[in-house]
Design a protein that fits this description.
binds adenosine-5'-triphosphate; 23 strands
């Protein structure tokens, strides 16, 4: 199946099975804003729990907070967001569509990458077993030509983004012959800067209202609480503060479903450390975060790091964790070494000292910060894309199955009475009533067993149990595995242990240590 089709199917599946709905659906939606349905909210909560527990439970030097969305407006002046949280935008005069100039150019770079990979794939097919990929990449003139074009563009883009030089960005778009995907023309406007923060008014105008912003990242709530937490928690460096919460960005081009939203949720952890140790911590957090992603079992080949060419105004090193979505490798998480920029700025703008007194060296200094920042919604999308499967079965039928990592699945166990009589529903309900205290267990009696299995496959339920007439005598049930479809007979008394062992968040967390 073409990757574009896979993505369309994932989006449709999300709506059909109660994972994600467009916001304000009966009013035809609101651009790039989405709601999570009955299954989506469970999956989302499980992702958040996996993250939170991996940070706060597994590290004795990381604690959590929950700061307000509204913050003093000077915070955004201090952080640089009022002046520099911009994207370069460009319009196509014919389609009247607006694009991010940097994204148009990055897509063009990705096209060269695709061409290179296609050349290699063709050669692999041609040469068969004797194919020496490394040698081919190093010697093929066609590959060399594409690599040279890609590198030249990359260098030019990198330089243009440093300023950024808006005229040069436009010139690159013209020189590369990039066309608007809607109108197909090159009739581009100038490139302009656009600030991504939403603002609103606080207080009535009679008292003199104040312009405030909806936070574009949760990190600043951590920075301005750093000293509160350090003092009240008697924290010693190095230590981290974690937070999960909503963030808002007035994205110019909101597309690709929940990949780029205007209201979204972030899971951020700011790790405060001694100046000079930040690069070691940066490397350490890169490794820890990659392990967290890969523990989900989607395959190491579907992840990669992408180091930033253009560092944000606050960073001295930055990388993205990318996941292979149906539309290519895309950022899911950012890991940034933010230096002491934010804390120093808040010290300057608030006039309050937020230095750390180091009892070991008897010095006071502003700590350095390494941040890990991941979007819950983007993570959700990567999990859905990685899990969606259409399978051809041996009996000629096909099924759609969401091979979600068991620990993240909205429902862990579905209990199905074989028939709606003879005391089987009562027995099934008894099992549900016992297990629902431990994990999300549901009861389903409508339709044939086959149809019920398909419905559970489609929402990613890792296990189903069938209660049959024998159950009434032997207190055993048939446990069916979603992925292998194998069935085993197990005692009802063992169910809790089996499910917790195989698909609890704890079982996933154990892979991290
Ligand atoms: P991008 O380059 O895709 O705009 P970014 O580099 O600006 O992302 P960060 O500021 O590093 O993103 O934010 C950290 C994480 O927050 C991202 O890795 C992503 O998972 C998530 N995120 C950022 N913007 C959005 C958005 N508009 N919608 C959904 N998630 C987002």
């Amino acid at each position: 199946m073409a990757q574009e089709d896979v993505f369309k199917k994932v989006v449709a599946h999300c709506k059909e099975y109660g994972f994600v709905f467009p916001s304000s659906d009966i009013y035809d939606g609101l651009g790039a804003v989405y709601d999570y349905g009955q299954n989506g909210v469970e999956l989302k909560n499980n992702i958040k729990q996996y993250w939170w527990q991996s940070m706060v439970l597994l590290h004795d030097n990381i604690v959590g907070i929950d700061s307000a969305i509204f913050m003093h407006p000077t915070i955004w002046k201090a952080s640089g967001h009022v002046d520099a949280f911009n994207d370069p935008l460009i319009d196509n005069r014919d389609s009247k569509k607006r694009y991010r100039a940097d994204v148009l150019i990055e897509d063009q770079i990705a096209k060269y990458d695709e061409k290179i990979e296609k050349e290699v794939a063709k050669a692999r097919k041609r040469f068969g077993d004797s194919f020496d990929e490394e040698k081919y990449r190093a010697t093929s003139p066609r590959v060399a030509e594409e690599v040279a074009k890609r590198e030249a563009l990359h260098e030019r883009y990198k330089a243009a983004m440093q300023g950024p030089d808006l005229e040069e960005l436009r010139q690159i778009i013209l020189d590369e012959g990039i066309v608007c995907p809607i109108s197909g023309t090159r009739n581009w406007t100038e490139v302009r800067q656009f600030n991504l923060m939403f603002s609103t008014e606080m207080g009535s105008t009679a008292d003199g209202s104040m312009k405030i912003y909806l936070r574009p990242e949760t990190a600043q709530g951590i920075f301005v609480n750093y000293l509160n937490v350090q003092k009240t928690g008697r924290m010693k460096l190095p230590f981290g503060i974690a937070q999960i919460g909503k963030a808002f960005r007035n994205e110019i081009v909101a597309r690709q479903f929940i990949f780029r939203m205007r209201e979204f949720e972030q899971m951020e952890m700011q790790f405060f450390c001694k100046p000079g140790t930040e690069m070691d911590w940066f490397r350490n957090w890169k490794a820890q975060r990659m392990k967290w992603h890969q523990a989900l079992g989607f395959g190491a080949e579907n992840y990669r790091f992408h180091d930033h060419d253009k560092l944000a105004h606050y960073a001295n090193a930055a990388t993205d964790v990318e996941f292979l979505m149906p539309f290519g490798f895309k950022e899911v998480e950012g890991i940034h070494s933010r230096t002491n920029f934010d804390l120093s700025q808040h010290e300057k703008f608030s006039g309050k000292s937020i230095k750390y007194f180091d009892p070991e060296t008897n010095e006071s200094y502003v700590p350095y910060v390494v941040e890990t920042s991941i979007g819950v919604d983007r993570m959700f999308l990567s999990v859905m894309c990685g899990s969606y499967c259409e399978e051809q079965l041996e009996n000629g039928e096909s099924r759609v199955v969401l091979k979600l990592p068991g620990a993240l699945a909205p429902v862990k166990l579905a209990v199905l009475p074989l028939v709606k009589k003879d005391g089987l529903p009562e027995k099934a309900r008894e099992i549900v009533n016992d297990l629902k205290f431990h994990f999300n267990t549901i009861y389903e009696e409508k339709d044939s067993i086959g149809k019920r299995y398909r419905r559970q496959d489609a929402i990613g339920t890792p296990y189903c149990v069938t209660v049959d007439h024998d159950t009434l005598n032997d207190n055993c049930v048939t446990l069916r595995n979603r992925d292998t479809m194998e069935q085993e007979r197990v005692a009802i008394s063992e169910l809790r242990g089996i499910i917790e062992d195989r698909v609890s968040i704890t079982s996933l967390l154990k892979k991290l240590i």
